[in-house]
Amino acid sequence: MGLLFRAWLPILLFGLLALVPLLAKLGAEGFIISLLTRVVILGLAAMALDLLIGFGGLVSFGHAAFIGIGAYSVGILSSHGQEDLLVQLAVAAAVSVAFALASGAIALRTHGVYFIMITLAFGQMLFFLATSLAAYGGDDGLTLSGRSTLAGRPLLKGDVTLYYLSLAVLLLAYLLCRRLVASRFGRVLRGARENEIRMEAIGFEPFPYRLVAYAVAGALAGIAGVLLANQSEFVSPAVMSWQRSGDLIFMVVLGGLGTLHGAIIGSAAFLLIEEVLSHFTEHWRIIFGPLLILAVLFIRGGLVGRLGRGL
To answer: Where does the sequence pass through the membrane (predicted)?
Structure first.
């Protein structure tokens, strides 16, 4: 029964997400749509990270840098008059892939804690670069004049439209990642995670597979950054801080490593708990931190694993 539930869980998850705008009409519609849009967008970034951690064993502590690349693609292009979403998505994806290939070519030649520290260093490098961009707000960030246009039309002005666009992008990214991990590419990636020497012995060099996975994850996180900038209509260096990278890792682990849809569930749980606690006290992080640690220690397999065992 548990295996059957887990097989149907992605369908149930996306079905519920598709119904959110309808269910939101029963309550504070604007607030619910805004919160769930963030869940979907950060779920996209967390799912991209799960491709690295859950299937490649690559714990990146600079993943938020790609979100920042996407967000600043919107901010910089908009400030120069280019507000078309498709152009911004293309630029964000291209720059994210280029940065992933350049940084990954160095970081992926290391292992374990060295890989973590190098990805953190590259992430912080972009963070400090963003703070130095005085023309685009520097430390204070950049407020956008409005949301991006699509084919010259303000189709994203409505919150519901942006939500469904974000959900559609998440679904396409999920199907792409599922296809990747089910292919020979994914099997090599998982095999290198388990035993790199054995994979080399049978004729597979893990490095190029890992580099491609790193580039794909970077591109998806960059796209998430474009959507996040449109959702908040604000761009700030904070979106690429190491704390945000840590949040994404927690989302992945909380939802369930190596499941893809678990990262989306982890994103929802993370943001909902954060939202609830922030209403009780301004020092909510003191409570939130231990809760996350306890969840990681005692919910083996994440929320997806817990749900499967509970049936």
So the answer is: 7-24, 30-53, 85-106, 113-136, 162-181, 207-228, 248-272, 284-303
Ramachandran sector of residue 257 (left: φ over 0; alpha: ψ -120 to 50; beta: rest): beta
Q: Which phi and psi (to 5°) does residue 66 adopt?
A: -70, -35
Computed over every residue of the chain, the mean pLDDT equals: 89
pLDDT in tens, 41-61: 999 999 999 999 999 999 999
Total domains present in the chain: 1
CATH number at residue 146: 1.10.3470
**Is the separation of the CB atoms in 130 and 70 below 8 Å?**
no
Contact of 270 with 254, CB cutoff 8 Å: yes
Token code pair at residue 12:
């149930």
Yes or no: say if 91 and 77 are a contact pair by the CB < 8 Å rule.
yes
Q: In the structure encoding, which two tokens stand for residue 257, read together?
A: 């490593």
Task: Please tell me the distance from the alpha carbon of residue 23 to that of residue 45, in angstroms, as a whole number.
Answer: 25
pLDDT at position 138: 87
What is the CB neighbour count within 10 angstroms for residue 59?
A: 16
Residue 213's nearest CA partner among 257, 168, 176, 252 is 176
Question: pLDDT (tens digit, 9 = 90+) per residue, 78-116?
Answer: 999 889 999 999 999 999 999 999 999 999 999 889 999
Give the ranges where the chain is alpha helix by DSSP (H): 2-24, 29-56, 64-79, 85-107, 112-131, 159-182, 184-194, 196-201, 206-232, 242-255, 261-278, 284-298, 302-309
Given a contact cutoff of 8 angstroms between Cβ atoms, the answer to whether 216 and 51 are in contact is yes
* Predicted confidence (pLDDT) at residue 310 exceeds the cutoff of 60: no
CB 232 within 8 A of CB 118: no
Contact 41, 231 (CB under 8 A): yes
Rounded Cα distance, 2 and 306, in Å: 10
pTM beyond 0.85, yes or no: yes
Domain extent, residue 262, equals: 2-22+29-309
